[in-house]
């Protein structure tokens, strides 16, 4: 059965697909077929020279995760929206990226093909990704494409300015006015570690993703460890989306109650179940281009919510009231987790960098996006705390007077945001799980639906068990964000650049690692004990 091309290419693009028994070698890539297996396994070979950790032979087992690059590209996609529901398919897709895909990222596929096919492609190196129903009955991902400088800045801002902004007034209340220094400190540190990720990506032409960096630095264990940490961060973010959606729906309908089979459900529990049922069909979508396109409007949603907050404080009856303490040491661990959560976007930065038309301008993309994020967080934190004082909730939208129209606009904006972000956030996790399915017979439409459904309902169970938005966010920030955004970038950079790292860089990375470890320990302990109480 032949493989079907799903995209059209220009006449000036040439890519040669060759079989094992041919003597000629392709200049950039060679796709080899292993006839010993029941299906044909392809591997991409890059002419670049890699470190000993990242070298994998042509017949080695495919490395996990294989789907990370394409699934995370949804966070940076600006593709035209198309929509269809999940079903098995066989796709051969050519995606334009600045760098070729290395052997450490070779696709996990099993699909028959003809002996020789010529496929149009770009004359400069491209990355070939193949997704087959033999391996995945998965979602069809929007194709990667090169982004302009402006698009890259917007993608970075959209990744940084997320739901963490809702808790910045609460973090200020808990830690005191001096805690704002931590907001600046974490912003500077995470900006620096973002530039370290770029240097790690540049250390070898074949490195494209965060797991690639882990493998280049620490071998397969490093790749797997980083992938698990990234997937855990994405999964926990979905829990936060559900808690946030349920809290605000419960505030809109505070008197909602239900008794089902003798079980009494309050407004939060009922809204959590309804939210889950509304979100569920979005994770069944086969092509997530539409959701990726809409979720890019997260910046607009953020602006709407912030404007509603300022409107209520400046024009409506709330006003601004100075107060608060200078520093609250006892509550500072909670503040550390909440502030660090605000800058937890490093899982997306390698994809933004790899998709740029001008990757040399990536540091300025980070500088602009981090500056906008910091001043946004600072302004909302100060205004929100001056408005609500010691009564500030973990989500400032819950403090807005319910009778005001602006309050309803802010609440519904927060409720609708997860509908576009939940599916593209949980999809990489689902892809990673599907790669573990042992046989092609299990990679079916029904199994894919089942995996995604189980993931969604598991986030519902956790959100009902620990319905504490602030504590869960502090836990994520203290544990996962500290690991992914502070500790691992420095550790990988030290490992990959050990022969050319300067004393200043080594000292800076060591300091950041120590800050990350100490903050992770005290912040995680504080968040866990808070939820236990």
Automatic annotation (TrEMBL):
The chain crosses the membrane at residues 175-193, 213-234, 267-285, 290-312, 332-353, 365-389, 409-433, 445-469, 475-494, 506-528. Its main location: membrane. InterPro entries: AA_transpt_TM. Residues 1-11 have a biased composition (Basic and acidic residues). It is found in: Membrane. It is a multi-pass membrane protein. Residues 147-528 form the Amino acid transporter transmembrane domain. Keywords: Amino-acid transport, Membrane, Transmembrane, Transmembrane helix, Transport. Residues 1-65, 95-123 are annotated as: Disordered. Residues 18-39 have a biased composition (Acidic residues). GO terms for molecular function: L-amino acid transmembrane transporter activity. The keyword Chloroplast does not apply. It holds the Pfam family Aa_trans. The keyword Transport applies. GO terms for cellular component: vacuolar membrane. Belongs to the amino acid/polyamine transporter 2 family. Amino acid/auxin permease (AAAP) (TC 2.A.18.5) subfamily. This is Amino acid transporter ant1. It comes from Nicotiana attenuata (Coyote tobacco). The gene is ANT1_2.
């Amino acid at each position: 059965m032949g493989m079907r091309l799903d995209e059209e290419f220009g006449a000036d693009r040439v890519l040669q697909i060759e079989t094992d028994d041919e003597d000629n070698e392709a200049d950039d890539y060679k796709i080899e077929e292993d006839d010993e297996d029941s299906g044909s396994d392809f591997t991409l070979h890059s002419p670049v020279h890699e470190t000993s950790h990242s070298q994998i032979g042509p017949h080695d087992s495919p490395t996990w995760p294989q789907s990370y690059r394409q699934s995370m590209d949804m966070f940076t996609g600006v593709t035209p929206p198309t929509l269809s529901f999940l079903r098995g398919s066989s796709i051969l897709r050519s995606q334009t990226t600045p760098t070729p895909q290395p052997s450490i990222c070779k696709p996990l596929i099993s699909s028959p093909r003809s002996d020789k096919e010529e496929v149009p492609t770009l004359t400069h190196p491209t990355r070939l990704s193949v997704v087959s129903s033999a391996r995945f009955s998965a979602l069809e991902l929007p194709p990667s494409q090169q982004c302009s400088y402006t698009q890259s800045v917007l993608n970075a801002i959209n990744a940084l300015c997320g739901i963490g902004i809702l808790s910045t007034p609460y973090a200020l209340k808990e830690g005191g006015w001096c805690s704002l220094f931590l907001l600046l400190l974490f912003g500077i540190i995470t900006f620096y570690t973002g530039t370290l990720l770029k240097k790690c990506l540049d250390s070898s032409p074949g490195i494209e993703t965060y797991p690639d960096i882990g493998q280049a630095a620490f071998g397969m264990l490093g790749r797997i460890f980083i992938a698990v940490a990234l997937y855990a961060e994405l999964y926990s973010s979905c829990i936060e989306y559900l808690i946030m959606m349920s809290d605000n729906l419960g505030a809109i309908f505070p008197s909602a109650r239900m008794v089902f089979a003798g079980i009494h459900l309050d407004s939060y529990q009922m809204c959590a179940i309804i939210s889950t049922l509304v979100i569920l069909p979005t994770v069944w979508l086969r092509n997530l281009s539409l959701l990726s396109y809409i979720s890019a409007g997260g910046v607009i949603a953020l602006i709407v919510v912030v404007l509603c907050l300022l409107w209520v404080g400046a024009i409506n009856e709330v006003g601004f009231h100075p107060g608060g303490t200078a520093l609250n040491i006892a509550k500072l661990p909670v503040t550390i987790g909440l502030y660090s959560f605000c800058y937890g976007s490093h899982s997306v930065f390698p994809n933004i960098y790899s998709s740029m038309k001008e990757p040399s301008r990536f540091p300025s993309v980070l500088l602009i996006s981090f500056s906008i994020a910091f001043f946004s967080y600072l302004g909302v934190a100060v205004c929100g705390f001056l408005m609500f004082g010691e009564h500030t909730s973990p989500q400032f939208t819950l403090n807005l007077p319910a009778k005001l129209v602006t309050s309803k606009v802010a609440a519904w904006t927060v409720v609708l945001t997860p509908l576009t972000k939940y599916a593209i956030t949980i999809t990489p996790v689902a892809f990673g799980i599907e790669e573990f399915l042992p046989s092609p017979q299990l990679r079916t439409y029904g199994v894919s639906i089942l995996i995604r459904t189980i993931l969604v309902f598991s986030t519902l169970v956790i959100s009902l068990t620990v319905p504490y938005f602030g504590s869960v966010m502090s836990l994520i920030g203290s544990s996962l964000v500290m690991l992914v955004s502070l500790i691992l970038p420095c550790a990988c950079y030290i490992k990959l650049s050990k022969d050319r790292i300067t004393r200043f860089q080594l000292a800076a990375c060591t300091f950041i690692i120590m800050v990350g470890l100490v903050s992770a320990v005290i912040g995680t302990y504080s968040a866990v004990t808070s939820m236990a109480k």
